[in-house]
Amino acid sequence: MDPNLQHALRKLRLSGLASSLDLRLREARGNNLDHLEFLELLLQDELNVRRQRMIERRTKAADFREKRTLDSFDFGFNSSIDRRQIHDLAAGGFLERAEDVLLIGPPGVGKSHIAQAIGHELIKAGKVVLYRSIFDILADLREDGLDQKHERTMKRYLKCDLLIIDDMGVKQLPPKSGEYLFEIVMRRYELRSTLMTSNRPLEEWGKLIGDVPAATAILDRFLHHANIIKIKGKSYRMKDAVLATRD
Questions:
Q1: Complete edge-to-edge strand list for the sheet that includes strand 129-133
Q2: Which CATH homologous superfamily contains domain 75-246?
Q3: Among candidates 162, 78, 159, which has minimal Cα distance to 120?
């Protein structure tokens, strides 16, 4: 490639186009492509590179606990999970309607896997996703004593297209948890979607949070436009433990 052309492409930040130009030139000569066909291929190369970088950047920013995908989820192990319903959520229609999602069921049935896999699919569709354990959120908000810092922290939870709050019900939440969670749910209500996972029934949330009025207010808003998915069955982790023992 001509050095001046390469420099110009780099300066214009067209690295995808620059990396594929020589290949596309040979392809154009070999297949007698016209100018528009050649240009279309180059631009598509650039778009593909930019999309992949966007996915990598947003996946890192989402702060997933693990890399989970729908392809790696064993739907056959648990017949209570509706594969079509999960894939419909991963298509992202609920985001456009600002609906929420609750995955509820005992430990080990795949709630966190599904939540993160849905988040990953939505990132590939161009959405901004943030994954946090409820304990991460509470730690963040407890540490920001100043009003300005609180608002900066809260902004992180409000601006994403999908906020995933994992691990509700793992253990009793600390004091003021209800206030923090209510603020997030209230300020996202009918504006942005929130997905929560819980291994405790809804009637126990008052005890879990330690604040029955706050729990009632949280559920009133969160469940108003929520897709509730109840998962039953055995633990995937116990299945893996049994297989490991047999091996």
A1: 129-133, 162-168, 193-198, 100-104, 226-230
A2: P-loop containing nucleotide triphosphate hydrolases (3.40.50.300)
A3: 162
d(CA 168, CA 179): 15
Residue 174: pLDDT over 90: no
CA 238 to chain CA centroid, Å, is: 26
User: How far is Cα of residue 147 from the mean position of the Cα atoms in its chain?
Assistant: 28
CB 21 within 8 A of CB 9: yes
**CA Rg value for the chain:** 23
Residue type, 199: N
Tokens (6 digits) for 233: 């069955």
The DSSP 8-state label assigned to residue 176 in this structure reads T
Q: pLDDT (tens digit, 9 = 90+) per residue, 115-161?
A: 999 999 999 999 999 999 999 999 888 765 556 678 888 899 999 99
> Which contacts qualify for 48-54: CB closer than 8 Å, 24 or more apart?
48/16, 49/15, 49/16, 49/19, 50/16, 54/126
User: How far is CA 69 from each of CA 61, 100, 121, 181, rounded to the nearest angstrom?
Assistant: 17, 20, 8, 27
Question: Per-residue b/e over 184-212, b at no fewer than 16 CB within 10 Å?
Answer: bbeebbeebbbbbbbbeebeebbebbebe
d(CA 189, CA 98): 8
Q: How far is CA 144 from the centre of its chain?
A: 25
